[in-house]
Write a structure and sequence with these properties.
- The chain is of the alpha/beta class.
- The chain folds into three domains: 132 residues, Rossmann fold (3-Layer(aba) Sandwich); 219 residues, 3-Layer(aba) Sandwich (Rossmann fold), CATH 3.40.50; 98 residues, GMP Synthetase, Chain A, domain 3 (2-Layer Sandwich).
- Strand 26, helix 14 and strand 27 form a beta-alpha-beta unit.
- The relative contact order is 0.08.
- The mean pLDDT is 91.
Amino acid sequence: MRVGEETRTFGELDDRARRLASALAGLGLQRGDRVGVLLPNRIEYPEIDLGLLYGGYVRVALNVRMKVADFLFALDDCGARALITCTDFDESAEEIAEALDLSWIRMESEDLPEAASSYSDIVEAAAPATVLIPESSEETAWISYTSGTTGKPKGVVLSRRALMAVAENLALELGVINADARMMLTQPLSHGAGYFAMAYVVAGGSITILPSFDAEQAFYLARKHSIPSIKLVPTTLASLLEVPGDSPFDHIIYGASPISPVQLDRALDRFGPVLTQVYGQSEIPVTITVLGKREHLQDGSQRTSAGRIWRTLEARILSDDGAELPVGELGELVVRGPQTMTGYWGRPDLTSEVLRDGWVHTKDLAVMDELGFIYLRGRRDDMIISGGFNVAPREVEDVLCGYRGVMEACVLGMPDERWGQRVVAFVRTDGSAVSTESLSAFADDHLGFRKPREYHFIEALPTNAYGKVDRKQLRDLAAQA
């Protein structure tokens, strides 16, 4: 395992994880207690994840891009007993420790605040703990808080069963993970990259973690350490395209947000048949669908799909009244399998809305074709009803991104006296001249009544702390316009 110039062997990782489990017990924590982790990508992150599992504690990873009010809400909501941070968050951690009366553990020993314990000191002083045998595979392992775009964040409860199922699935679909396997992780370990890290730790593979993404650094490290695989998001994939020279990667895994057809074609032209797409959500992490290397090379629309359902999952497309829809019809994607969540922490009401008879209702609109490929059409809550007809935002966005010069598009519905809602598009170009008239004519040819009635050209689509397009901010911009 490597972060920058720091490395850990598996022996060191195991020893330090056991010591952390013992140190937390020494602070008074007990099995099942929640521990907040507020850290950027650093060498200690995987040992913390492992140590919490060893001690039977629950990991509550926090998004470093959020604000102190968000940290306070999540840690208070789950009743956290401890918080692990670094100097970057001293001010926030001090406020949280005082407000919630929890144990504050800081990475660095220098200038240690009076209220904090030194991570390195307590780990080095502790004796390695005996690994706790879980009472059940349903024992809670992680709580992941959603972005809360439609209300307060929800704590997604993931069991040990779910974590292990994700790790097994990644090995099943993405190639053998063993002592010879090497992966570069570019996303926050608090989220998607954490699942990949866990899979490689379990299987004895090697991971190189980037503290922050730098395309040239990624190429340099991959060449230096012979790293064939990388996991990233479409925006960072675009940065890789600009790095000169032959690519060191024979497997590029992307996900977490849509990719435009233009960007996908550019990546295939540059890198060849090395791309794999994965799709998931907090409630079913990483592994809902997969579009493999071979599928990326198929003609037609299948390579613009999200792929086919993971082999350990079942999937259906349902109508608003819960009836299963035939091939080709738009509805809500629902799935069930071993990697699904247990529920939302302390929210049985919300759990019963989303998790029914073992099926997770994803709130993602989708179409399934006759071969099982799934085409995502946006969130159910984002569906636009214009003139009495349903308009799926993702379908419109994909068409707009097929126009020369358009790099990204986001489509939403705004109130309209005549249509009920009008389709409004925000578009980012590659700098070339794209006129409203030409783009509208293109959309009319391909979309008919579903075409946008209003266009806004924007330098960059705003994103939230999770890297998702911030539709609320775009709605405010459209309202102002």
